[in-house]
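Weekly sync notes, structure subgroup
Attendees: PM, AL, DS (notes)

Item 1: joint prediction request from the bench team. They want all two components modeled as one assembly rather than separately. Inputs as received:
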Amino acid sequence: MAQKIETERLNAYFGAVHAVKDVDLGIPENKITAIIGPSGCGKSTLIRCFNRMHEVVHGARVTGKVMLDGKNIYDADMDPVLVRTKVGMVFQKPNPFPTMSIYDNVAAGLRLNGVKDWNRLDKTVEKSLKLAALWDEVKHQLDASGVSISGGQQQRLCIARALAVEPEALLLDEPCSALDPIATAKIEDLLFDLKNSYTIVIVTHNMQQAARIADYTAFMYMGELIEFGVTKTIFEAPDKELTEKYITGRFG
Amino acid sequence: MSLEIRTFRRRKLVNLLASAAALSCVVVALIPLASILVEVAVKGYGALSWGFISNPIIPGGGIGNAILGTLQLVFYASLVGLPVGILTGIYVSEFGDNVFGRTIRFFNDVLANFPSIVIGLLAYSLFITYFGFSILLGAIALAIIMIPVVANTTEEALRMVPNSLREASLALGVPRWKTVLKIMISNGKAGMVTGALLAIARITGETAPILVTARYSYYWALSPSDPTASLPVAIWFNALDQSVTAQQEAWGAALILIILVLSLNIVVRLLTRRNRFSNSYQMVKKSWLRKSKQSA
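Output from the run, pasted for the record:
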């Protein structure tokens, strides 16, 4: 099993707060890995270390290694901008650019990186919206504002926008927490289809969601990685007592 | 049941009283504004004529050179003040999370509340030997007044842009400077325009710093190195004169000053309101629609 992303003694801080503690974790390639755990356990911070978005926050620091295809993304000669084109991210709240149309939102990553070839942009926009299972719903309103569609559609637009720059891995930070069950189901279906070509890491509060879609699940508590394994094992026969307590809802 | 109805009525009454109080406060706040506009319009209207706005102050008593002087002063001041102010605001908001940035912000706040006459005298003492009493010297003083105002409002406007948009752009692998240029500014544009307008409106009405820099002149300023009359200073000189014509001309100049500022506001608002969301990509979109029609 190939590891797409591998962390070695990864620590993340916000000023004096130690949010992620000594995490060693391997994210398998072309699988869905879910990260679960109670609020504030560091799971969002952990995935933000995977594309160097953690350091965007003032006072944030990282120590340790994050290997992407065997190369440490925190090496001095690695450009965070390049890392982010390889590892895309979708956020908790849908955040399409309100000053752009649907088309422009999807094209944004390429356009802002200097792509001017309209043919290529057109193809990428169509392909990305189809991958995000949004094409049929918006193909006649590509010039409408990116925030004129429903919340679920906006989140799929954000997925399309992330896919348009052709990343190798996709990080999703509680992408469904602001969505209703129908919109959530659509996103889960789409992630299922995407995993053939992308490595997907999803942070979720929803344990059923992790059980439904994830091949592997990591359980975090108080900044530490407690347990990682095949989803079925984590949910049915966890090694650690803490994991079992959380899974069965006895705390959290 | 009866208790519930009683508290319900009480609540409605309180609600009504609070609304009435708020409304009356609005009226009180609007009275001075409306009365100034009406007073200036009524008293100044009589002075307006083609000759009044096209002739210089002497001979014949127009204010043409004061109008042109104000326009020139504002133009040259904005030429320097707007870009410097906007760039300062962008720096402080987007890259100023350090000691240098905080220092700039502190001095901006101080400078923004400086008495404008002091800034006029500063420009005078520093640059009089280079420029003499002139439009340029006046524009320097006005630009210094303008910069902190523009910088503060730009910073404020950029801070209002949700952080989630900044993160969305960075996460797409867009470099920081491009994120600022294409995402932050396009989302904070409305606030930045408001700030620029406020600053222009403020310097258009400045009197004291002009008195010690661009001074006053009865004639057309032929070049930016000439002294010039300006509307606020023309109002001041005319208002000091007790004669009926001078008084009337002061009101007329005030009316024109207000019209200038108001119309600039309206024009800029109309220009920036038209495109609520991006049409810079219209071309791409159109090409796309054209092609999809052809293939259909």
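Discussion: The mean pLDDT of chain B is 90.
Action: AL to compare against the crosslinking data before next sync.
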